[in-house]
Write a structure and sequence with these properties.
Elements lengths: L1 E5 L11 H15 L3 E7 L4 H5 L2 E11 L2 E10 L7 E6 L15 H18 L6 E5 L6 H7 L11 E5 L7 E2 L24 E2 H8 L2 E4 L2 H7 L7 H6 L4 E3 L26 H15 L8 E5 L11 H12 L4 E6 L3 H9 L8 E5 L3 H10 L2 E4 L9 H7 L3 E5 L2 H6 L11 E3 L4 H15 L2 H11 L6 H15 L1
Parallel strand pairs: 1-2, 1-6, 2-5, 6-7, 7-10, 10-11, 12-13, 12-15, 13-14, 15-16, 16-17
Antiparallel strand pairs: 3-4, 4-5, 8-9
Helix pairs in contact: 1-16, 4-5, 8-11, 9-14
């Protein structure tokens, strides 16, 4: 079977979140099963682009409304990612350093999707499946079905995966000219909520829709930023498939981002060494449990609750733990977390920004990872943490519910709390500190969680079964 993934992100080419990790791993594991998997994404000005060699495979000419433009498709020469990688270049539009964050992001990603469809029409053969990811690629199923220029693609099955329904690619009807010519009586397949809604259109037009965890699919029926009724109506073609992680990349016995590697048998010694290195670097006390947060400092992740929860933990639980924060996001949250460094007694620090090497070292050296997310479609950080023997302290939502069992329950190994609130998070931190005093219990849990299998091997089989059902 030949599958083409269309996405705005793919690790290690360009990544802003979990979407990049998924698209960087899923096709590789599909290839290992003997299938042909390819990824098509925008050509950003990244280190990966400049460090590798490329072949030009296609040049085309198309338009976005009244603006006509040239686009070029290039292919990475060596197949170094384990699958064919194609980049779409539109000069001055896609070739920028950041993935998102520009005023013309709507125009950028619609132009990208138009270019992908135009290129696929020019192919001499047809893929078996086109798998699109999130709103930046979600108009493609509509293009295939209803746009005149792409009618030759109408019989290609499409799958849409929703990684985060909070972002939907809205645009006003004044921008409807961006959509290639289509039967106007199909206008309803574009709109939702009084606007063109890219994600909503994808849900309507894709042959199958998946979310990145079963619980997130259920939660979206009551909390999907306005798409609840649509998802309920289309529930017959929706399914939840839990994300996996790439065990070749995330392996504490070989991880290239730190030196003190460890296995299940040597986890205590390995984590101790990495924790000491972290504590030395950030002026923390290695005798205390190290609780970390890694991720975007935004409301969706519950990051705005961190400053008060940390202060309350010091006040009510006592200064019996260390906190180390890595991330960037809302300026006010960054400012509050930075200001707290002056109150540290060798038990708190923060790194504003993102550092891939530091994140790996934190997974390796931390005792706990804190995830107070308001929304967490799947979550990958808790899966990385489990692989590295780091115990998750998580809000009981989405993929966190599906992957972390509370240690107070049968066969449990993590700490869960129910509400994205300072009080619930503080109670979770207290439980983590109390657990840490039971060294044998912690050792037993560490060895257990490192054996849990959240790799892509099982998840990829679920995707292949889904493809087979519509092929």
């Amino acid at each position: 079977m030949e599958i083409i993934h269309v996405s705005a992100e793919c690790y290690p080419v360009a990544k802003a979140g979990g979407l990049g990790d998924v698209v960087g791993a899923l096709p590789k594991y599909q290839r290992q099963l003997g299938h042909v998997a390819k990824v098509v994404m925008p050509m950003y000005r990244t280190k990966f682009l400049l460090a590798n060699e490329w072949d030009v495979v296609h040049k085309g000419y198309t338009h976005l409304g009244n603006w006509w433009f040239n686009y070029t498709v290039i292919k990475e020469k060596t197949n170094k990612l384990g699958f064919d990688l194609y980049l779409v270049d539109i000069n001055g539009v896609l070739d920028r350093e950041k993935v998102y964050g520009y005023d013309d992001d709507i125009e950028r990603f619609v132009a990208f999707q138009v270019s992908v469809a135009d290129w696929l029409v020019a192919w001499k053969h047809r893929p078996d499946i086109v798998h699109v990811h999130d709103h930046q690629a979600a108009l493609i199923p509509f293009f295939f079905k209803y746009c005149h220029a792409y009618q030759s693609l109408a019989d290609i099955p499409t799958v849409l995966t929703i990684h985060n329904a909070q972002y939907q690619g809205w645009m006003g009807w004044d921008k409807s000219t961006y959509i290639p010519a289509y039967d106007t009586w199909k206008t309803g397949m574009l709109g939702w909520g009084n606007a063109i809604n890219s994600l909503g259109s994808g849900i309507k037009c894709a042959w199958k829709v998946t979310t990145v965890s079963p619980t997130y699919l259920e939660e979206m029926r009551s909390n999907a930023n306005g798409l609840e009724a649509l998802l309920e109506y289309e529930k017959g073609k929706c399914s939840g498939i839990l994300n996996g992680i790439d065990n070749l990349v995330w392996d504490p016995s070989t991880d290239g981002y730190f030196e003190d590697h460890f296995t299940i048998e040597t986890v205590e010694e390995g984590k101790r060494k990495n924790k000491e290195l972290l504590c030395q670097r950030f002026q923390l006390d290695p005798k205390k449990p190290l609780i970390t947060f890694i991720g975007r400092l935004v409301g969706e992740k519950g990051a705005d609750l961190l400053p008060q929860a940390i202060e309350d933990s010091f006040y009510y639980v006592g200064r019996r733990m260390n906190f180390l924060i890595l991330g960037s996001g809302f300026p006010d949250v960054e400012g509050r977390l930075n200001a707290m460094k002056g109150l540290s007694r060798g038990d708190y620090n923060v790194y504003i920004g993102y550092d891939e090497a530091l994140s790996h070292l934190m997974y390796a050296g931390a005792d706990y990872i804190l995830m107070p997310s308001r929304v967490e479609p799947c979550g990958l950080n808790q899966l990385y943490a489990l692989r590295y023997g780091t115990i998750p302290v998580v809000r009981n939502t989405g993929g966190l519910h599906d992957t972390v069992l509370d240690y107070g329950d049968k066969n449990g190994y993590g700490i869960r709390f129910n509400h994205a609130s300072v009080g619930d998070m503080t109670h979770g931190i207290w439980r983590a500190v109390e657990m840490y005093q039971q060294s044998e219990k912690v050792k037993e849990i560490r060895q257990h969680i490192m054996q849990l299998d959240f790799s892509w091997e099982s998840s990829v089989k679920s995707y292949m079964q889904l493809y087979e059902s519509i092929k």
